[in-house]
Amino acid sequence: MNQILVTEKLYITPELKRKKKAYKFYFFLSVFLVCILVSFYIYAEVDRNKSEETSQAILDEFNQNIDNSLADSNVLVAILNDTVDTSSENNSTTETPSKTSNSHNNKFSPNRVETTSDGFRYITIGSINIPKINVSYPILDGETDSVEETEALLKISPTKFWGVDPNEIGNFSLVGHNYRNSKFFSKVPSLENGDKIEITDNLGRTLVYTVFDKYEVTPSDTSCTAPNTNGTRDLTLITCTNDSQLRVIVKARAN
């Protein structure tokens, strides 16, 4: 019996003790690293949720402004119709200005501009709605179009990347983050030919675009933003693949 106990005691060698200490160290180090990674994930998710809330608040404000503008336009028409002398030869001078006139020349007037936490100025130039994938966001446009500014705006909402303004003749290019969840442009890669995309501009016009192409390119390939559309109104959506190695391009055209 004593011989067995001595044998078991001798079996726990200094080398084995060092290994056990090493195993404990690596175990606690692994737990620590896992906690750090989980913390980063939780922080990122909270940050994304905050961005989603900010984006939806901007969208609500944009929709409210559009409703107010259209209501004011209707009131103006009613007043003019009540006061115009139909016998006058100058009735044309009382016509209501067309809502399709260009209002982008003074887009950074003080009453429209917003500022990010990083100090970048932007405005809301429209909204995008994709019923199939339940996407509805405001469209932002920065003042300088710098890389830093675009990155700051992309944390808030889909952003104009290049081209004409929403619903104008030409190629309107719009970029949005793929967060690999249900937020921003995460579901855009699932769109197929024939799917519908609704774009509302800051004049209150809503046009329906039909998807006609989808493909992937390298990050350096910007050929999808080519401006020549032969007189059509084109929409280009840009986002990342799930592994962020390539860019998903979705092309659509106004009906």
Topology diagram in text:
Elements: H1 2-11, H2 14-83, E1 114-115, E2 121-130, E3 135-142, H3 147-154, E4 159-163, E5 170-175, E6 196-201, E7 206-217, E8 233-240, E9 247-254
Parallel strand pairs: 5-8
Antiparallel strand pairs: 1-2, 2-3, 2-6, 4-5, 6-7, 7-9, 8-9
Q: How would you describe what is shown here?
A:
It contains 3 helices and 9 strands, in the order ααβββαββββββ. By secondary structure, the protein is α+β, with helices and mostly antiparallel strands. It has one domain (44-82, 114-254): Sortase (Sortase, Chain: A). Strands 1, 2, 3, 4, 5, 6, 7, 8 and 9 form a 9-stranded mixed beta sheet that branches. It starts with a helix and ends with a strand.
